[in-house]
Amino acid sequence: MKTLVICEKGIAARRIAQILSNRKYKQGKVAGVPYYYFDDYIVIGLKGHIMKLDYPKEFSKWKGISPKNLIDVEPVKKVTAYSIKKALKELSKDVQRVIIATDYDREGELIGVEALSMLPKGIEVKRARFSAITPYEIKRAFENLGNVDYNLSKSAEARQYVDLIWGASLTRFISISSNQLGKDFLSVGRVQTPTLALIVEREKEIEKFVPKPYWIIKIKMEKDGMVFEATSDKIEDEDKAKEVYEKVKKKGYAIVKKFKKEMKESVPPPPYDTTSFLKDASYLGYSPANAMKIAEELYMNGYISYPRTDNTVYPALPFDSILKKLSKVFPHDVKKLLEMRREKPTRGKKYSHDHPPIHPVDAYTGKEHMKIYELIAKRFMATLAKNALMEEKKFEVEAEIKFKGEGRKIIERNWLELYPYIKIEEKEIPDLKEGEKLKILEAKMERKETKPPKRYTQGSLLAEMEKLGLGTKSTRHEIISKLYQRKYIKGKTISPTPAGIAVTEALKKGAEIITKPDMTAMLEEDMEKIADGKKSFEEVVEESKSILKKAFEILEGKEKDIAREIKNALYKQNFFGKCPKCGADLVLRKSRNGKRFIGCSNYPRCTTTYPLPQKGVVFFEGEYCECGAPKITIIYKGKKWKKCADPNCQN
């Protein structure tokens, strides 16, 4: 039976052809698109989505239709990869069967269905589902073919549809209202906007925060030649703290009131799902988007399992076989693991049937992606290792007031030997007896302040998005990247730009529902119901349209207020200090060829200009150089630095 196998990308097509043919495939090209053939099989790779949902051409002019009326315009599917369409039509001639072998998730199912729409009718259609591109997984999948899940593809299509009508109508409304058109348009999105609102709200909390002082007293004691420390609770009154401190110093000793020593076990972390993997990768300096890109490459090349998963419970994996492969890369770690392997792997709270947790499936010996591969491999090994064993001691002493202290000693490291990303601090203290008297060697009083809430990092923002139901495992990292690209947020510890704040505040005052996660989370649940066959595509789309129309009823009539707020914020964002020559404002400008620079707002009377780097985020933080020019802050590829704007400055 002549069979056409459709894969999501070219790299996956080549590897699947290699596995199914036992490396005996040949390569051809149609319309510039490579394909692979052997026996009665033809294998072709797509480039992800080969169709795009968009509005008909006549609605492309932003001012040609009111943003609200755009909600009821029916979008159309447009082919974006004509060469692949031509190749599919050519290769499907005389084919009796098509096997969809795209990634097994919503997007993968929709990509496969899009490809099917370009083929002749009447061909038998089957689905290959796999979680790793390894010989075992691929051969098993092709021996146990299933059917295409059209409910799953419809749920992905519903997301496309809803995101388009929300994004296009609201983006046009905000951009037209504030006259920010062309390349400078202001983006609004169903998931993007409530995510940005989280960052803006956190920034407001930080700005409003008023630190409160408090004092603590620390005492050092000694027993059996071991010096150890205890700390008081917070004392909010300085005079009281001083009074207690003087009494403690004068007293010179403390009485042990409580002492507890126990052995505790530290369980290894659970297997990786997408969110926990991306969060940990961010601590290693990888943006979620970059970490996912690397993970996808490792998956496509057969080194790790599918990296988009909500599962934290391993199915029956060939653990021994995987460890044998890992021994080629981490021989000492695997040897240690075999000496301390637990009976059953650790498990998390989330379980799903589609894909297993992220884990290695083969030995990767390259250098380019080793840090990410090692993170995944060592997490996998840690989940198979025994609990660490620790001796914990807690005590309480009294010297005018109560002081508390604790110590920790690792007795058996076990999984900690294999997983260097978690550090547990050891602090030894002697055994104490209730009622015994200890000499105070030193007492000191420290002033401290309450701290504001921390800004989000990309990792903590991902976790918060998951908690609130914003986006999916496959889209959250893309949303964060978009916020950076739109210059709505900046920095490793994320803060909103004036534009990000202005767009959020304008929408919040106009129609708060757009900035809240509740509505977006509800729509995500509805899309799950489409996948489960409990709701129809049409129902979900109409519900989202109804919510959006209600938002527009509130927004319309507030265009002037929105425009004023956004224009003021953008001016603030584009302000780069005062001109050293005439004292007017220095502002961000663009040349005719689109290059950005700093220019004096007093032009043409004043011709002061400074060049700017053309890549990365640039802004002014109020500092000036000794030469009088402003200092600019640049953020590019995760690095942040400052420099004088004047390239001729000797400083």
What features would you describe in this structure?
The chain is of the alpha+beta class and 651 residues long. 37% of the residues lie in helices and 23% in strands. The strands form 6 sheets. A 6-stranded mixed sheet has the order 2-3-4-1-7-8, with helices on both faces. The chain has a 6-stranded antiparallel beta barrel with strand order 9-10-13-12-11-14. A 4-stranded antiparallel sheet has the order 17-18-19-20. The termini are far apart. The model has no long low-confidence stretch (mean pLDDT 92).
Q: How confident overall, as mean pLDDT?
A: 92
Order of adjacent strands in the largest pleated sheet = 2-3-4-1-7-8
Give the beta-strand count.
23
Work out the helix count.
19
Find the structural class using helix and strand composition.
alpha+beta
* Coarse morphology: globular
Low-confidence stretches: none
Distance between the termini: 75 Å
The largest sheet is: 6 strands, mixed
Q: Which bin fits the share of residues in helices?
A: 25-40%
Radius of gyration of CA atoms, rounded to a whole number: 30 Å
**β-sheet strand percentage:** 15-25%
